[in-house]
Amino acid sequence: MDKVLQYLQEFKPQSRAWFDEQRQVAEDYEFFREFSKRENLEKAEWRDVQQVGSHLNCFRSLALARGNALGRPNHPIERYRASFVYLVHGPEPLAERIRNFHTNDEYSLHYFGDAALSELVGYLFPEQFIFYNSRDKFSAGFLDIEPHFETGDDFVEKLVKFSQAIRPVAALYEKTIGQQTDLPLNLEVDQFLSWVYEVYSSDQNPLEAKYWVLGAGKGAKRWPEFYEDGIVTIGWDGLGDLRLYNSQSEVFDGFKTKYKDESNPTNNAKACFDFAHKLRIGDGLFVKQGTSKLVGFGVIESEYMFDESRPSHKHIRKVRWTKKGEFDLPEGERLSIKTVTPVRDAEVLEMLKKAVGLDLDEGVSVSDGHSSGVSYWWLNANPKIWNFAEDAVGQKQIYTTHNEQGNKRQKYKYFVEAKPGDLVIGYVTSPDREVVAVCKITRGIHKHPDGESIEFEKIMQLTTPVSLEELQRNPSLQESEPLVNNYGMGCSRRLTTR
Q1: Is 277 part of any domain?
Q2: 269: in domain
Q3: Domain boundaries, position 106
Q4: pTM
Q5: What digits encode the pLDDT tens for the residues 257-308?
Q6: Other beta carbons less than 10 A from residue 42's beta carbon
Q7: What percent of the chain has pLDDT over 90?
Q8: How far apart are CA 135 and CA 194, in angstroms?
Q9: Distance in angstroms (rounded) separating the CA atoms of residues 280 and 205
Q10: Are the C-beta atoms of 287 and 226 separated by less than 8 Å?
Q11: Alpha-carbon gap, residue 10 to 153, rounded angstroms
């Protein structure tokens, strides 16, 4: 728990401001407290069930998923009533009820998948369970929290084990920070895990090509200057050169010192730190006006600069703007009010690209300024023979260019093209079917006792593996060669979002 304690202590001075900004969680919790009362469930109408979509983040942030699950009834209203009554008030043990609600033909609801179930259970039974979504998975791995999953565990078993693994964290949270709200303890702990994800997730994935949404002042008043001068800027000049801050926490402390009237600087501290330290050359940038309109798109072309000669807005980057106009988002879609926001969801990115008139495969990629001359490759590993996940970071492996019969592998030309320094995406085949690691080629084709081979070193273990299904849902990857043809050694220059 030493690492957990370290980050709890970092979170502590920011916790009050963080919770002040996360009021939606309290609203969602109160909704489910009222919704789950037996008398309300037994008389629920379709409009009541639809409200669930406004209080689960997995639906709130993904319009398509929400539309599939709650845009129109997929079952008679009696089925929804009976399923929710059973989940909350049924006679069987809780884990059995959750499993039946998830998979049993009598109780399961179409398009209520793992993410929705995790949030439902977390809100309905917060004393026993905590959310188990991509944010929590990342943060657990980052904090070295081990749920001790076993082969064959279904989602509900993982949910149970994950919640059990978090109990010591909750106890340490209560001792170190103390409850900051009237929410159940586990919901506060989940917010701590969300904070870890927000602050540290992008640091763990050097291959992640990013898109961002940035505000240009009230009514986008700074947009004409941005476009004409080929720049983008943010305020808070009193902080000085942001390169002098080594963490978001340090920027937060700077806000508390320089801007004493700003009581909740968490989001602004994150915006400043991200602008200076996490935006990268080649990243795509959408500029918003309010929360329902975009006015431009461009590609970042410089590192962060602090320009003392400017009268204001001295934090600056150069941008090559490619789109200008007034682009309305689809009805009902809203952007965050935060000044700088990363775009991590494929459906949201697709929506933004369509809004400004970008082709879905147009934009930026990892190779745009990040790793000049580096190619990216996809490599399959059969877990029955060899599993990327079982190798330690730093361990080297060889991969022969010919099969056991002495014939060249199907994509032999890619072995020829691969060179030292290139990066390899490590994919584990059925039954896992997920990307689990990143490797770097250390030797190109060379003679080896086992035959002609290439050599590579594992440089990263993904804390949250990326499933094949998740990759296939990404519109930008629909025609990528590894996903279309499932080749063992495939060029993945088009695997990354472009």
Answers
A1: yes
A2: yes
A3: 2-202
A4: 0.56
A5: 888 766 667 788 889 999 998 888 888 999 999 989 999 999 998 889 999 9
A6: 12
A7: 47
A8: 6
A9: 13
A10: yes
A11: 34
